[in-house]
Amino acid sequence: xxxxxxxxxxxxxxxxxxxxxxxxxxxxxxxxxxxxxxxxxxxxxxxxxxxxxxxxxxxxxxxxxxxxxxxxxxxxxxxxxxxxxxxxxxxxxxxxxxxxxxxxxxxxxxxxxxxxxxxxxxxxxxxxxxxxxxxxxxxxxxxxxxx
Length: 147
Prior knowledge:
4-stranded parallel β-sheet, PIN-like_dom_sf, alpha/beta, Rossmann fold, 49% helix, PIN_dom, PIN domain-containing protein
């Protein structure tokens, strides 16, 4: 089975000081050892960089670009990126209209669009509630603690 890995999981996976790092690492190792494929989108890279380099007092990690780049290299080695395609945009556009998506939630809709275009049903995320609206699309949100 293929899982899309949400950015919040990637962030906790690379931050060894985070309270959820161990849960995240355990879930990823288990999924991989069970033969599942863990993928990400180019959007995950962008979101990761945003949070990793944003100042800590603005809800970021406050990493320098050099440190963020080292973490990004780890992510790139472990999680293959899905191809971007015009079909993802078309699917995203349909989703935001069909589900009346607005504001910051448009980013989750784009992840769902990439999932559906690439025949992926599961997303590994700490924010399951962000994806419940897409259940009718076949999207299943899995919390790392439940793996």
